[in-house]
Design a protein that fits this description.
The chain has about 290 residues and is an alpha+beta fold. The chain has two domains: about 150 residues; about 110 residues, Homeodomain-like (Arc Repressor Mutant, subunit A), CATH 1.10.10. The chain is about 40% helix and about 15% strand. It has twelve helices and eight strands. The strands form two sheets. It has a six-stranded antiparallel β-sheet. Helix 4 packs antiparallel against helix 5. The N and C termini lie far apart (about 45 Å). This is Helix-turn-helix transcriptional regulator.
């Protein structure tokens, strides 16, 4: 593997699990860094563990990110994965909210890739993986899949992190200028939150429209307009999770919606409840 300096810094928002305070009452969540040599492709690792009383369950909801996830899942098996054939699962970019019901006892190690990182590292077709879990991931060598499958709750978090580093570092990857270009564009989207339209991104990054669309299709499997829209919702949810108590009209305008009704409709379609209801629910949790 060719070690490269991460050209962009963070390529993900801080938003993720909806109603995080509620999740913390049911599930232990730990985030872990990957090895420095993997940072051009991997954002971070995360680990979940739960042990719920018999007859009870909890539904966790997570915002979609423009990134692939490779997970090792032991114990309770989520819907859609049980029939896939193994504990190592790659899930492409999800275009809708990710809901999963947890019950009994379970453990998951997740590898969150940077936008396009999984495609750059493995050559996988991002478009064919969109909204689809696959196990075992055919784009990864069998030896790597087998090494990841050995991970589980019997190991410490540090041991899992080191083993995951070792498994991924066995993959061969060379410098990918197109992927680096994509990461630079994603970083620009995150660094300058006034970029709310694709034409603004094209001008800011000095990239033709067709090339921009092609890069996102190849590496992410979703168009740049979708990514911009998701980041705006992430910002709003983070504000509400942090206790925002201003008007929804001001919140909508701050993040580029010129019509509060449009903002509320888009928020409700993704989150499942209107922003007013979500904010009220968060305040009651505190």
């Amino acid at each position: 593997m060719t070690a490269r300096k991460n050209p962009t810094g963070s390529t993900s928002t801080g938003a993720g699990v909806l109603r995080p305070h509620q999740l913390a009452r049911h599930v232990d969540l730990v985030r872990l860094p990957c090895a420095q040599s993997l940072t051009p492709w991997v954002e971070n690792y995360w680990m979940l563990h739960w042990d719920l009383p018999a007859g009870t369950s909890y539904c966790s909801s997570t915002l979609p990110h423009p990134a692939h996830t490779l997970s090792v899942e032991k114990g309770w098996v989520r819907d859609g994965v049980a029939a896939l054939g193994g504990p190592v699962v790659v899930t492409g970019v999800l275009t809708r909210r990710f809901d999963v019901t947890l019950a009994a006892t379970g453990w998951v190690l997740g590898i969150k890739f940077r936008p396009g990182g999984f495609t750059s590292l493995t050559g996988a077709d991002a478009r064919s993986l969109r909204d689809t879990p696959v196990s075992p991931p055919s784009s990864i060598p069998t030896a790597t899949v087998d090494a990841l499958a050995q991970l589980g709750p019997h190991l410490s978090a540090d041991a899992c992190r080191e083993s995951a580093d070792s498994a991924l570092e066995n993959l061969n990857c060379t410098t990918d200028p197109e992927y680096d270009e994509l990461l630079g564009i994603v970083a620009a989207m995150l660094d300058d939150r006034t970029l709310i339209r694709v034409t603004q991104v094209e001008e800011h990054c000095n990239i033709p429209a067709r090339r921009l669309q092609r890069l996102f299709a190849k590496y992410i499997g979703a168009p740049p307009k979708w990514v911009l829209a998701r980041y705006r919702i992430h910002d709003v949810v983070t504000e509400l999770d942090d206790g925002y108590d201003g008007s929804l009209a001001d919140l909508a305008a701050r993040y580029g919606w010129f019509d509060q009704a449009h903002f509320s409709r888009e928020f409700t379609e993704l989150i499942g409840v209107p922003p007013s209801a979500y904010g009220l629910h968060i305040s009651h949790e505190r």
